[in-house]
Amino acid sequence: MIWTNDPTRLMLVASLAMSYALVCLAPYLRTRRKRVAAQRAKAEAAANPGWIVAYASQTGNAEELAGQTLATLRLAGIAAQMSELSELHAEDLQRAERILFLVSTYGEGDAPDAAAAFAGRLMTNGLALPQLHYAVLALGDSAYAQFCGFGRALDQWLQAQGAQSLFPRIEVNRSSAEAIGAWRQQLSHLAGTSDAPDWSAPAFDNWRLAARVLLNPGSAGAPVYHLELEPRDGELPAWESGDLVQVSAPSDPERAREYSIASMPADGRVHLLVRLHTHDDGSHGAASGWLTQQAGLGQAIQLRLRQHRRFRLEDNAQRPLILIGNGSGIAGLRGHLKARTANGRARNWLLFGERNVAHDYHYRDELATWQLHGKLEKLDLVFSRDQLQRRYVQDSLAEQADTVRAWVAAGAAIYVCGSLDGMAAGVDAALAAALGREALDQLTAAGRYRRDVY
């Protein structure tokens, strides 16, 4: 070791040490502020229970509606606190007199990731709640067999514990404005006010389709397109990696389709990865067909950006990152890699799966460049059809359990993006086998295990 008494060098070393310390300290301080705020809110609720607005959200819709519900109550002069469902314990339920539950359903009837601990901790046991009055807004998608499955299960469990429903459960199919309007009407009646905040969603803006490229010609799978869009008027809005866009297709304007953003504002455009969906009768999906087949270059696209806080980096920005996905899920992971490389964060491990290396290696050159320049520390690719026995990304993950444990021990966060059927469940099982289910649940509660699956 070479030491120096040069004051200039000493000051430089001290400055660098201080900068590093601040970078390491910032995530801790943010987490601590959130924890202190949650503890303060819980203490206030204990002193004056009032109403509790509890939410369980996978992509942010239930959380957004919970915020609007809370604003309506407070506008009417009603003391109320908002809480994520996972933060509620048995004593909170037994002390509260009124709770409004706004919960989404993940996959085929499961609780959202952040609510899994609540479901396992409380809903598997009996808990006397005769004093509790409640209501449930259940969000779901009727395309799934277990439509609003978690909301229905929560409602049934509350009734079995002796809790009394303020009004019948309201089920929301694909963000139905009519169903949300019914919830708002019931809420206004309970609060004794019709002067509620504006619940309408932001208007769609006019964008233009600036580029479209088929990424997988000759693939045995459905066509996948890289799209680039830019505002027709005004400046490019800001967003963070992990965020989504909603697209309104002309043939079905009432139901917006969501896509992960695969770019950053510095790229100058919103990048999307869209797989063309074809129905059994040969017709195309309303949004995917419009974006990939019907809309011409330069044509107007109705689009709006939406924050997806559950898949943002946030306090994980300084951590090592394990990114896992398949198919078009590479879009959300690419957004994170772009953000990471721009900020000089090189401890990135990407595990990606598709069909064939010859046709389905999306963003091959970009990934190779990042790896060459040390911005992608570890890259594992799994192409399921390139060998006699099918092989998937979860198989590669299971084989590297020791490496997974080492990365997590070093503070890594895990982000999963891609198909709900097969991949998401397989990856979850592989992670649980490597880390233990309890440890994985703890990572979820700490925001270090996040999923955007569909």
Total count of helical runs of at least 4 residues: 13
Beginning-to-end CA distance, first to last residue: 53 Å
Percentage of residues assigned to helices: 25-40%
Shape descriptor reads: globular
Rg is 24 Å
Q: How many strand segments? A: 17
Write down the secondary-structure element order: HEHEHEHEHEEHEEEEEHEEHEHEHHEHHE
Beta-strand portion reads 15-25%
Structural class by helix and strand composition: alpha/beta
Return residue spans where pLDDT drops below 50 for at least 5 consecutive residues.
none
Q: What multimeric state do the chains show?
A: single chain
Question: Could you describe the largest sheet, including whether it forms a barrel?
Answer: 6 strands, parallel
Write down the overall mean pLDDT: 90
Features:
alpha/beta, 454 residues, single chain, 13 helices
Please specify the SSE layout and strand pairing:
Elements: H1 7-47, E1 51-56, H2 61-75, E2 80-84, H3 90-95, E3 98-104, H4 116-121, E4 133-140, H5 149-160, E5 164-165, E6 170-173, H6 177-191, E7 205-214, E8 224-231, E9 244-249, E10 252-260, E11 270-275, H7 286-294, E12 300-306, E13 321-326, H8 330-342, E14 348-354, H9 364-372, E15 378-383, H10 393-399, H11 401-409, E16 413-418, H12 420-435, H13 437-445, E17 449-453
Parallel strand pairs: 1-2, 1-3, 3-4, 4-5, 4-6, 13-14, 13-16, 14-15, 16-17
Antiparallel strand pairs: 7-8, 7-12, 8-11, 9-10, 9-12
